[in-house]
User: Which sequence fits this backbone?
């Protein structure tokens, strides 16, 4: 016959303290913990329904060994309650521990006194030192943003998994359910943002190149203050990830390479030899791009074929001509240009790259039709329109015959007549 | 009306159509798949139609052949002719083709022996 659990003592318990915990119905356990001096009264409805142990929060302190079968014990003068066991026996094999002294229970709001390390990146864990941290619903905040994970290790120590963010000297605060916010004496800084690559690495003096910056510690969309190319701000800045940002290059002040920098949470990217540059070039004097591959090399006359040109230095391309037909670029970067071909006719049409922005100086660079010397098996860099094909003749005679005196053009259909009238107007 | 493919996505291309040996006069580009042209006066059946778009000859499907209406004889005058001597008869009808064609000219002399 197990000893009956001690009667609950009248203590000013918060709702949390009442809700998830109750005396375990495990035989032989519980009596040992009586010295801790704090008891948790099970909610009446839980008792009636024979409900399993609720989540025992907070889980502070090291998980003791050898307690898997017990429901309660005293550790170090504190009260230990662990769940994962119910009337039917241990559940899932986990013994979740709550170690909490009576003095701690009576303490007020959690305090933060120190944070280490002082500089850490998003996703890293920082150690918080303070008091009263072993609380239900503990939320640690860095500069106002909740940590991705707030974990109390003991009443004096907690860990915060840093959320995405940026900035220096951000206050760390602790909150607990039903408690006022405590004092904050620790601060943490995110590392300086770094950018190590800009693609494409060169573009037109007139600006407009879509740049992709690669690096790290680029913060969050909200924390990204600006991107500068030389002394000017990059426009249409888009934060893609903590390691990638894209923006549209502003017009350059002159030809030559300029530094690309980011400002994240008030912190400028590191300067030094690794800082990437973007070179402004003039379309007329720039080195000509090289096309090494074209695909597909044939398509229908009505247009609409999506062409892909691969090569190098293609970032300067603002247009592509196939014979005399325009191929409207959709995406352009240093190694590839995609474009949609308009209506075209002819065989083995040569390609011409148009460099330079519309309205500014432009340059036409013909693409040699011969295959690249290193790839003699590759198809030539020309485009052929499918040959015309005549499939049927339509006469108005049901047997398909035509009158011997001939048929004038066009037959009296409204669609054709209006098309012809439009063509004649255009010709005038 | 000529139906097919790759006639060009715009009207600017030069288009030539020939039926047998005679070129069609006016040609009207309608779309990438449709061209209208006049069929010149003529006779014959199974005549090839050749189409050139911007200098390239179109491959023609076997069904893309042109046939004119067959001749139709309505009457022969005179209806009686001497058996022993050559005589001139007039054949009246339709679809005898344009004058000067190699086929029978309309109302032309026909020797009957």
Assistant:
């Amino acid at each position: 016959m197990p000893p009956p659990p001690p009667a609950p003592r009248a203590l000013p318990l918060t709702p949390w303290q009442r809700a998830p915990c109750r005396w375990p119905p495990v035989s032989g356990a519980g009596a040992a913990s009586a010295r801790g001096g704090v008891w948790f009264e099970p909610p009446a409805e839980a008792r009636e329904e024979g409900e399993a142990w609720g989540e025992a929060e907070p889980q502070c302190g090291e998980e003791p060994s050898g307690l898997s079968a017990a429901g309660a014990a005293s550790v170090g003068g504190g009260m230990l309650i662990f769940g994962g066991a119910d009337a039917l026996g241990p559940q899932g094999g986990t013994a979740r521990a709550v170690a909490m002294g009576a003095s701690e229970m009576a303490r007020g709001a959690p305090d933060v006194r120190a944070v280490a390390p002082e500089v850490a990146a998003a996703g890293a864990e920082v150690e918080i030192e303070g008091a009263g941290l072993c609380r239900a619903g503990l939320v640690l905040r860095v500069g106002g943003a909740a940590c991705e994970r707030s974990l109390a290790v003991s009443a004096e120590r907690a860990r915060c998994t840093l959320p995405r963010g940026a900035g220096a000297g951000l206050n760390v605060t602790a909150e607990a359910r039903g408690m006022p916010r405590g004092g904050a004496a620790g601060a943490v800084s995110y590392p300086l943002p770094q950018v190590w690559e800009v693609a494409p690495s060169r573009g037109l003096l007139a600006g407009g190149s879509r740049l992709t910056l690669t690096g790290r510690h680029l913060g969050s969309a909200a924390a990204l203050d600006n991107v500068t190319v030389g002394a000017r701000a990059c426009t249409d800045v888009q934060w893609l990830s903590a390691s990638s940002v894209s923006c549209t290059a502003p017009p350059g002040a002159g030809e030559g390479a300029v530094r690309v920098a980011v400002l994240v949470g008030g912190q400028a990217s590191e300067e030094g030899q690794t800082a990437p540059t973007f070179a402004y070039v003039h379309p007329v004097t720039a080195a000509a791009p090289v096309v090494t591959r074209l695909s597909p090399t044939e398509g229908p006359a009505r247009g609409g074929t999506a062409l892909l040109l691969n090569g190098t230095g293609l970032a300067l391309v603002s247009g592509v001509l196939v014979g005399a037909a325009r191929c409207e670029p959709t995406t352009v970067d240093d190694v590839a240009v995609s474009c949609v071909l308009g209506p075209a006719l002819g065989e083995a049409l040569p390609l011409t790259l148009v460099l330079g922005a519309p309205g500014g100086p432009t340059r036409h660079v013909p693409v040699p039709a011969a295959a690249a010397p290193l790839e003699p098996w590759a198809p030539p860099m020309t485009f052929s329109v499918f040959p015309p094909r005549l499939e049927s003749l339509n006469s108005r005679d049901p047997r398909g015959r035509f009158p011997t005196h001939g048929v004038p053009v066009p037959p009296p259909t409204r669609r054709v007549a209006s098309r012809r009238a439009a063509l004649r107007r255009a010709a005038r | 009306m000529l139906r097919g493919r790759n006639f060009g996505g715009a009207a600017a291309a030069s288009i030539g159509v020939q039926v047998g040996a005679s070129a069609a006069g006016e040609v009207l580009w309608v779309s990438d798949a449709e061209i209208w042209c006049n069929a010149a006066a003529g006779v014959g059946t199974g005549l090839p139609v050749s189409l050139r778009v911007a200098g390239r000859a179109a491959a023609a499907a076997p069904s893309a052949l042109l046939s004119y209406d067959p001749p139709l004889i309505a009457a022969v005058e005179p209806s009686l002719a001497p058996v022993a001597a050559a005589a001139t008869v007039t054949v009246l009808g339709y679809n005898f083709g344009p004058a000067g064609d190699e086929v029978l000219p309309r109302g032309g002399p026909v020797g009957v022996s």
Chain A has four domains: 15-105, 108-188, 194-281, 290-385. The helical segments of chain A are 15-18, 44-49, 102-106, 414-427.
